[in-house]
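Today's session is about reading a structure prediction critically. Students often jump straight to the picture, but the first step is always the sequence itself: look for stretches that repeat, for charged clusters, for runs of hydrophobic residues. Only then move on to the predicted structure, which in these notes is written as discrete structure tokens rather than atom positions. Here is the chain we will use throughout the hour.
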Amino acid sequence: MTANLILIIVVGVMVACGTTLVLERSLTRILVGFVLIGNGLNVMFLVVSGPAGAAPILGLSGDPMADPLPQAMALTAIVITLGTTAFGLALAYRAWQLTGTDDVQDDLEDDLIRRRAETDQVSATFDEADSELPDEGYAGDATLGPGDEVPR
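Below is the predicted structure for this chain, in token form.
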């Protein structure tokens, strides 16, 4: 069996472009990225399915039958891509209604945690008493061997 090189290149380009778009901040670009990845996977199923054959119904013809599994996987991928697209469209429309833009904003709490980590500060909810407890294992832990030390 020989694979069609052009279709393999098309799969690579579609998935690469889709992945690049998913990493953007605009929900519209993220949505187009998911659609590109989904279509790239469908083309991949087409390439992997092999050469065309007769319909997979016994007794219809003497030609070799086509494998129905890649067709079922492609239909499943189409349904999943459609659901993801519908959810992404609803999310982008709601974000546009609330903020007037479809850009994903930075979370203020994530920024605060990042700044505290850079200055080596602890949170106000950090309990010093709990910092004395070991993270893993204790004296009666079954994962510790007889000669292993309890981590402190």
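Discussion point for the tutorial: The chain has four helices and no strands.
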